[in-house]
Amino acid sequence: MNTQAAPSARYSRGAVILHWLIAVLIVLNFVFAFMAEDKPREEALAIMANHKAIGILILLFTVLRVVWRLTHRPPAPLADLKPWELALSRVVHFLLYLFMLAVPLGGWATHSAWSGGQPVNLFGLIDWPGLPFAASKTLGETFGEMHEVGAFSMAALVVLHIAGALKHRIVDRNPDTLRRISIGA
Ligand code: HEM
Ligand code: HEM
């Protein structure tokens, strides 16, 4: 039985759109986190309000994406992948999903612990509830550390992920890997 994907096999449109939407939002959220660092307090708070709202969007889109992934079959792996490449890509994809959920959850917990369970306002439109924590500096700092370490671990995974994609494109000269997740045809 031939279990290899035809070269044209690609991720479903929903998976592709969610992949790129979430990727852009994650990059944006790192930019906001760093921009807030050396700003005066008022400005930093305004930037962090956007960071939090975008982070919650990432959480929601990722939940949608995981549901989509579980209900839509991904294309079969490309025929030219070596077994170790396939195994590594599966582990990295799994860990990426894990961090795409854990990092915003950690941010939400950080916000909730610092603020004593205050809601997160999403772009002045609606309130996303806070987690039911009493205000605590210790807990805020602990969750803050976890959130930060998680975010940087996720960034390292993304670098590995992009390096893998580019290796297939440039070293192996195989355009199919990128084509499978590209927005165009
Ligand atoms: C924050 C940035 C990114 C995140 C979090 C991310 C995450 C993911 C995840 C979780 C998958 C697995 C899809 C699945 O099978 O369910 C995936 C697939 C893929 N991503 Fe990304 N990605 C990011 C950026 C990029 C970039 C910049 C590129 C291109 C240079 C890229 C290229 C790909 C490719 C080619 C696949 C399909 C791999 C395959 O066919 O097995 N990704 N991505
Ligand atoms: C994928 C989504 C997210 C990413 C990549 C991300 C990334 C980061 C990074 C890199 C920092 C550290 C900045 C520094 O070095 O000072 C940070 C801090 C922070 N983030 Fe996020 N974040 C995300 C989601 C969220 C969410 C959803 C919330 C809250 C609802 C949030 C709230 C915070 C807070 C309060 C801090 C300051 C932590 C502290 O120092 O106590 N983040 N985030």
Task: Give the SSE layout.
Blueprint: H1 13-37, H2 41-71, H3 83-115, E1 120-122, E2 126-128, H4 137-171, H5 176-180
Antiparallel strand pairs: 1-2
Helix pairs in contact: 1-2, 2-3, 3-4
Largest sheet: 2 strands, antiparallel
Which architecture would the CATH scheme give at its second level?
Up-down Bundle
Distinct helical segment count: 5
* Strand/helix succession: HHHEEHH
- The first-to-last residue Cα distance is 28 Å
Instruction: Please report which band the strand proportion falls in: under 5%, 5-15%, 15-25%, 25-35%, 35-45% or over 45%.
Output: under 5%
Helix/strand class? mainly alpha
Helix content: 55-70%
Examine the coordinates and then state which fold CATH places here, giving the name of the CATH topology: Fumarate Reductase Cytochrome B subunit
For this structure, what is the CATH class? Mainly Alpha
Number of strands: 2
Tell me the Rg in angstroms.
19 Å
Hetero ligands: protoporphyrin IX containing FE
Low-confidence stretches: 1-7
Overall body shape = elongated
The largest beta-sheet arranges its strands as 1-2
Oligomer: single chain
By CATH's scheme, which homologous superfamily applies?
Answer: Transmembrane di-heme cytochromes, Chain C
Main attributes?
single chain, 185 residues, mainly alpha, Fumarate Reductase Cytochrome B subunit, two-stranded antiparallel sheet, 70% helix, elongated, disordered N terminus, binds protoporphyrin IX containing FE, Cyt_b561_bac/Ni-Hgenase, heme binding
